[in-house]
Design goal:
With about 170 residues, the chain is α+β, with helices and mostly antiparallel strands. It is built from four helices and ten strands; from the N terminus they run H-E-E-E-E-E-E-E-H-E-E-H-E-H. Strands 1, 2, 3, 4, 5 and 6 form a six-stranded antiparallel beta sheet that branches. The chain has a four-stranded antiparallel beta sheet with strand order 8-9-7-10. It starts with a helix and ends with a helix.
């Protein structure tokens, strides 16, 4: 109903990143099915950012429509231009095709493969996961929001392993 009436929504969400229940005030968009999961795309009013919530992680009984109308004009982004580089140790025998319009070129100076592709919004999460799986053998150059997310993830991992007693 909040989506149809263009009203803000408050809810509690079990955050996999923080490992606890987090209270949100959001501007919801229509549900999306990705793989076997249903997601609620939202604009988070507090942090001024767009992302999606896995429906099964929304705490039952906590979603309440607010009287506040949606303030944010959502940019309907349907695709991203992805550009990344793979190290010669990964790309020496060729590059696996992961994206429909993927183009590969090799930098003669250092041997790194430069991969460029357009990905749909629904492919964004899988692209992020794939790129993180390459570890230190990848350099993501665009889109900027993906570069920032990967940098944040690396910072968290660095902090965890830097302070961990082995």
């Amino acid at each position: 109903m909040a989506i149809r009436r263009r009203q803000q929504l408050e809810l509690d969400y079990i955050s996999p990143k923080e490992g606890r229940l987090v209270h949100h005030i959001v501007e919801p968009q229509p549900f999306r099915m990705e793989g076997d999961h249903v997601y609620l795309p939202i604009w988070d009013v507090k942090i001024n950012k767009e992302y999606k919530l896995k429906l099964t992680r929304i705490q039952p009984g906590t979603a309440k429509m607010l009287r506040t109308p949606m303030q944010h004009q959502r940019i309907d982004r349907t695709s991203y231009r992805l550009r990344y580089r793979l190290s010669p140790s990964i790309s020496r025998d060729g590059v696996t095709t992961h994206f429909a319009d993927q183009q590969v070129e090799y930098d003669p100076a250092d041997g790194w493969a430069i991969i460029v592709a357009t990905i749909a919004e629904k492919e964004y999460f899988d692209a992020r996961r794939l790129l993180l799986s390459y570890g230190s053998n990848v350099i993501v150059e665009s889109p900027p929001e993906l570069v920032a997310e990967i940098a944040d993830e690396i910072a968290v991992l660095h902090q965890r392993y830097l302070t961990k007693e082995l």
